[in-house]
Amino acid sequence: MLVSRPPDRGLAAVDGLSVGHATKLKAATGCTVILCPAGAVAGADVGGAAAGTRELDACSPHHIADRIHGVVLSGGSAFGLSAADGVTRYLGGRGVGFDTGVARVPIVPAAILFDLRLGSSRIRPDAAMGRAACQAASRGRAISGCAGAGTGATVGKLFGMERAMKSGVGSASLKLPSRAGGATVAALAAVNAFGDVRHVETGEIVAGARAASGSGPGFADTAAHMARGVSRAGFAPRQNTTLIVVGTDARLSRAEACRVARLCQDGLARAVTPAHTRFDGDIVFVLSTGKRRADPDCLAVAACRAIGHAVLDAVMSATTLHGLPAVRDLDST
């Protein structure tokens, strides 16, 4: 049986990881950094068809660098990838990175989500914001809701932004029982999904495409409508992506980390319906920082549960922004 841990620290509950956010609330954008200056074994899996990434190859078992030193999640669409420049310079200035013999080069994969429509499309995360997120990084209490990469995040966009809802960034952590190695498993999720978010325990929709005005309260149920052939043409649906980072102090090889990342897409698919569409750039990163023993499949099952709680935290902690309602404000809108 999995032992629940309060989600007050999220990824920072894993030794070797710290988390920082830089937020521009008025522009509805920001970036989130996960730092692992001592290095972490990394794996990644891309589940959607609209991913935007930088240095994702560093998460491959075949890459020469056997550790990464940070991950950047950013708003701003492809423009937001420049936030990784600030993170690379920040770590490089502290002597962190892959030893090339002449300099230590930080290995910092990055992934982006599309948030240009909600706030200002002219203000995007840049190198300065990436550095600011590094300076804010800590191992303290996790920040959830409209912060960092989740600042401009939204969910439920089958019928356009007028019936969508506000989302954000969320965290959760679990601990395997001592008989299974006692490893900590944590997840951070920036949830900017095309589909709806479902409760991790009940399966009920808690945030997503709202029912049409005059058709009664509640949610439209994106997956049910799509099963009946309802779709949305044009570029508008391609403004999505759920970005997830899973961290653990269990020991994983790079091949195992990639395998766990692939299995973790199941956790995302249970929390967001539908997930992995051609409109989404869903990516799961897995970071291993420790030496505890754990079965990789058991670890993946725990990680899927942590992902479900992190996704739920993202929508439950969000607040209404630029007129787009959040769960906590829905009854009053």
Kindly provide the name of the CATH class: Alpha Beta
The helix/strand series, from N terminus to C terminus, equals EEEEEHEEEHEEEEEEHEHEEH
For the record, give the distance between the C-alpha atoms at the N and C termini, rounded to a whole number.
Answer: 40 Å
CATH architecture: 4-Layer Sandwich
- Number of helical regions: 5
What would you say about this model in short?
With 333 residues, the chain is an alpha+beta fold. It is 20% helix and 28% strand. A hairpin with a 6-residue loop joins strand 13 and strand 14.
Structural features, described:
By secondary structure, this protein is α+β, with helices and mostly antiparallel strands. It contains five helices and 17 strands. The protein has one domain (3-327): L-amino peptidase D-ALA esterase/amidase. 20% of the residues lie in helices and 28% in strands. The strands form four sheets. Strands 1, 2, 3, 4, 5, 8, 11, 12, 15 and 17 form a ten-stranded mixed β-sheet that branches. A three-stranded antiparallel β-sheet has the order 14-13-16. Strands 6-7 form a two-stranded antiparallel sheet. A hairpin with a 4-residue loop joins strand 6 and strand 7. Helix 1 packs across helix 2 (127-136) and helix 4 packs across helix 5. The longest helix is centred in the last third of the chain and has 22 residues, at 296-317. It starts with a strand and ends in a 16-residue tail after the last helix. Mean pLDDT is 92; it is low at 1-6.
Task: Give the tags.
alpha+beta; ten-stranded mixed β-sheet; L-amino peptidase D-ALA esterase/amidase; 17 strands; three-stranded antiparallel β-sheet; disordered N terminus; 5 helices; 333 residues
